[in-house]
Structure formats: structure tokens, C-alpha cells
Amino acid sequence: MSQRADLPAPADWTPTRREGLARLERFRPAMGGRYASSRNHDGGPSARGNVSTLSPWVRRRLVGEAELVAAAVADHGASAAEKFVQEVFWRSYWKGWLEMRPGVWRAYRDGLSADRAALGEDRRLARRVAEAEEGRTGLDCFDAWATELVETGYLHNHARMWFASIWIFTLRLPWRLGADFFLRHLIDGDPASNTLGWRWVAGLHTQGKAYVAQAWNIAKFTGGRFRPDPRDLAENAEPLPWDAPPPPLPLAPAPPLDPSAPTALLITEEDCLPETLGIEARGLALSRLRAAATLQITAARSDAAVGPLVEAFDRGALEDAARRAEAAGAPVVERLSAVAPEDLARWAARAGATQIVTAWVPVGPVRDWLEAARPALGDVRVAMVRRQWDDAVWPHATAGFFRVKKEIPALLRALT
After folding, report:
1. Beta strand pairing status for 355-359 and 381-385?
2. Which one of 117, 206, 259, 360 is least enclosed by Cβ atoms within 10 Å?
3. 198 and 164 Cβ atoms separated by less than 8 Å
4. What's the Cα-to-Cα distance from 41 to each of 34, 55, 233, rounded to whole Å?
5. pTM, entire model
6. Regarding beta strands 291-296 and 333-337, do their DSSP bridges make them parallel or antiparallel, or are they unpaired?
7. How far apart are CA 206 and CA 56, in angstroms?
8. If you compute the radius of gyration of the chain from its CA atoms, what whole number of angstroms results?
9. Any idea which architecture 263-385 has in CATH?
10. What are the tens digits of pLDDT across the range 65-76?
11. What gap in Å lies between CA 291 and CA 248, rounded to an integer?
């Protein structure tokens, strides 16, 4: 598919911490009232000045959540920056909620496999899904968003909600296939935010509440770029059959790091900021590591092909992380990709490491891969280090966002 002239080129996404921080600085003046009043407007891929577009960098922790909220509060004050700050905490809420309910992720993956199998048995359904993914439904706004997603790797948050609602309630397609389509193509695709966002639209997150895309809302917040006929959209969004999520499990404690053990550092696309991981405070300097490596397993996002823009951003982010780790004193960083669990074990064995230290890998495909690799690692233990931000925010994600929201003032005092 050729790049459309009205869509930004993939080169606009530079997967480095330096670029992320530069974007943060450029957006700082807009983090207050301007963001609050304009954030819901989708002016199209060439008009993104009302939102930060920092999510691909935050997704990989090239830029940290604490850095974002500290900048917003410092420049605008907690009151004026409230909406921007809340959006940062929403992302952490989703991650903490799923972290304490890993069964919801497993149910999504199992259900996706069943949905994929159904496509092989129902040619009409397979054709309709293909038309939706390729932007050939005949609904102008939806088709434009499908094209924008695949060709740029990004959609405005409001467009994501409209798209998901139309996919589920107008086109009546399986929601998990839509969530998978997003996760394969969104550069900022996050297992928690994506899965739970689609569940929320479908009415599976909050009982009895689903999100319906309405023609007047689309026309208003796209500035009239799209004016769908109300008759072409589902008038009502009846929530999908309710399946109550399990109660939250206690947040798993981070395993202790043994500073005396021969240790290797593993960097994944879940956290590309190894130099601030804090292992020195636990008695292990980067310079004392036996080995270091990046592990790219972007393909684990889905059993279908992941978009090239996602793969390229992961690759570039890990390359940037490797350079910074080496500059901070780590050994020369090996690049591991498309490896089998046995390859990870052999890498640790070559280094003589009995411990692998890595940033906390939250529930999702990378965690699944590491869990599957544990038998091959044998006596090599994996110590995941959880960041202070997650330790502070995640325990409040036991129910709805309100429980996190009411803690934001105290969390800001503690974390910024």
C-alpha cells in the first residue's frame, strides 16, 4: 500500500529518548488549559498539535510517566494540568488493573484464537473483517481511520473509540479481532490499554455501559471532516453479554535481586530506559554485569503479521536503549531477536550468569514469552525490577478509575 500524500511519513516517528524528550519540551506549553479544551478534537494526521503524540515513547518508557506529569504541573499547576495528568494516570490504571487480573489477558488470547479459527470456517465473516481492516466498508470515516492506522501507526484516541464502536456495533465484527488489528498496527499499542479499552467500548469493563459512536459527535470533533449519515451507524450499543471479570489478585511482589550473583541485563521493548532502572541502589553496578542484551519479540503481539512500523519502532527503541546502557557502563549489548527460549538460556550460559535482571515486564505478550522461557533457563533466575511509579499507582487499580483519580494529589507529591 503506497503512502498517501496527506499522511505523515513513518520517519516522523524517531524511536529515541532524545526525540521523546524533545517532543515533551515542544508540547509543554499546551499541557494546561489548551489541552483540556482541545484534546477531544481530531483534526486529522496532519493536525496533531492538540495532543502530545508521546504515547509511542511512553509505551516503551523512553520517556517516563513521572517526567510527563512533573513537566505539566511545573508549568501549569496541578489544577490547570489536571486533564493531561489524568490521561497519564489512565494508562497506569489500565496496566495495574490487568496486572492484578492476568486471567482477563489469557481469556482475550484464547478468545482471539477461537475468533481466528472461525474466520477459516466462515468465508463471509472473513471477507467482512478483511474489508474493515483494508478500509473498504464504504463508511468514509471508518475507512479513513483504517488506512491512517496501517499507514501511520497512530490514531487519535477519540478516533480509536469511534472505530472500535463501529467495528463492534455497526459492522458487528468480533471485538477481539478488532483489538488485535489495533495491537498489530498501533506503534503505541499496549496490551493493557488496548485490550481493556476495547472491552470498555464493548460494555465488558463496566457492567451495562458500552460506548456508541454517534454521527453528530464524529462531525463535531473532526471539525466536519467526516459527516456520516446517522442511519449508517448503530443507533444503540447494547453491551455484549456480561462476563464479570475476576476479583483482583494481590499485586505480585518484585523478586529480590541478588547483588552477589553473576548477572546479565536483559532489555525488552517494555522498558527501554535501563540506565535509570536503579539496580545500583540494590548493590549491582552496570559495570559489574557479566553481559547485556536487548530482546526484540515484537511478533509476539499477535499470531498474525505485526505492522512494519511497529517492528521498526521497537527495533529502534531497543537500539537506542543499548547505546545508552553502554554509555552508562554496561558491557557491550548483544542484539537478540526472533529467538527461541533455548537461545536466551544459551546466551546466559555463555556469560556465566545465574541471574538475569530486567525491568518489570507487565502482563502481555512479552511476559507470556518470558514465562514460556523459564523451563529452558533452568537454574538461571529472572529478577524483574519494578519502578517506583508502578509500585505506587498499580495497587489503587482494584476497581474503576475513580480509585486512582482520588489518589492523584498524593501520588503527585510522592512521585514528582
Report:
1. parallel
2. 117
3. yes
4. 12, 17, 20
5. 0.96
6. parallel
7. 27
8. 21
9. 3-Layer(aba) Sandwich (3.40)
10. 999 999 999 999
11. 37
According to CATH, the topology of domain 10-99+394-415 is: 1.25.40
Q: Which residues partner with 266 through β-bridges?
A: 293, 358
10 Å Cβ neighbour count for 88?
23
> Is the per-residue pLDDT at 16 higher than 80?
yes
Record the cell numbers describing residue 16, joined without a space: 529515541
**Annotated domain spans of the chain:** 10-99+394-415, 103-232, 263-385
Length of the chain: 416
CB 102: neighbour CB atoms within 10 A?
17
Cβ–Cβ < 8 Å for 358, 385: yes
CA atoms within 13 A on the CB side of 301: 30
pLDDT band per the 50, 70, 90 thresholds, residue 240? confident
Q: Do the beta carbons of residue 324 and residue 357 sit within 8 Å?
A: no
**pLDDT for 324 beyond 70:** yes
For residues 105, 108, 110, 114, the Cα torsion angle rounded to the nearest 10 degrees is -170
- What pLDDT is stored for residue 7 in this prediction? 56
Indicate if the pLDDT at residue 110 is higher than 70: yes
